[in-house]
Structures are given as structure tokens and as C-alpha cells.
Amino acid sequence: MKAKILLPLLIAFFVSCSSYEKIGNFKYRTTVKRVFIDDFGGLIESIKTYYSPTKDTFLFGHIIKTQKLDFENENDTIYTIGKFTYDPVNKTITSTEIYKNGYEHFLELDSLVRILVQKKDGSIFLKEYIEYKEGVRTSK
């Protein structure tokens, strides 16, 4: 009897652990990964990754925030702020990383912008990669 109650609870728990985000007409499986980088005395980047709605393969990721490698709390210094917008008319995704609190001097960049385009099958491709240094745009 306990197994009959426990099994649906376990299934509900594991299904709820997956997160999905709808972009346009497609639902993408997403995860947030935390990555250590050895920049600026040790930082942790929180990166949101998106996977294909049909093949479950990695498509792209963008940094949500970068902060010091330490005990995390609301008062921690944030070095990167990520912004993510979707334009449904042009089917474009704009991922922006803004560097601050001295990290922009370390990287020698003010910000980074990636413009991605959503295809009709839900796949995503990088259209443009733009770096800003001292307010001046340089495309790569």
C-alpha cells in the first residue's frame, strides 16, 4: 500500500525538477548551471542553458549573474548582470551581459550582446556577436 502512494509522489517530484521556458511557439528545457571561473580572484557564474525542443541537445546559454566565490547572500557584489529578451515579431533573442564593479576593467569590455534567431523548427543560431569597449561597439 505504501508503494502505491510513494511511487506517484516520486514521479511528481522528478517531473517538477525539470524546468521549461516557452520562447515563441516552442518549449525549451532549461537548466541553471553554476560554473567556477578563475577570473578576478575566483568567481561563480550562474548560466542558464537552453536545450532543443525536439532533440534535447544543447542550443545556447546566457549568464544570469557573476559573483564572488564566497558564501552567497543578497549583499554579495555582483560583477555581471545578464538580460534576456525575445522579440516575437522578428523571432530574435537578445542576450546581454553587462559588466560592473571593476570587472569591466579586468575584461576590458563594458558589455557583450548576442543576437540569436529562432528558426521555424525551433532551433537557434547566432546572428551577431557584439562587444562594447568604453561605449564603442565592435562586431565579431
Mean pLDDT: 84
Q: What order do the SSEs take from the amino end to the carboxyl end, as H and E?
A: HEEEEEEHEEE
- Span of the ends, CA to CA: 62 Å
The percent of residues in helical segments reads 10-25%
Strand order of the main beta sheet, please? 1-2-3-4-5-6-7-8-9
- Taken together, the total number of domains comes to 1
Largest sheet: 9 strands, antiparallel
Class from helix and strand fractions: alpha+beta
Stretches with pLDDT under 50, minimum 5 residues:
9-16
- How many E-type strands? 9
In what range is the share of β-strand residues?
A: over 45%
- Please work out how many helical segments DSSP would assign: 2
Judging from the principal axes of the Cα atoms, what is the shape? globular
Supply Rg: 19 Å
Organism: Flavobacterium circumlabens
Protein name: Lipoprotein
What do these coordinates show?
It is a single chain. With 140 residues, the chain is an alpha+beta fold. The protein has one domain (19-138). 15% of the residues lie in helices and 55% in strands. The chain contains two helices and nine strands. It has helices at 2-17, 103-107; strands at 19-23, 26-37, 43-51, 58-68, 78-87, 92-99, 111-118, 124-133, 136-139. Strands 1-2-3-4-5-6-7-8-9 form a nine-stranded antiparallel beta sheet. Strand 2 (26-37) and strand 3 (43-51) form a beta hairpin. It is globular, with a radius of gyration of 19 Å. The model is unreliable at 9-16 (pLDDT under 50). This is Lipoprotein.
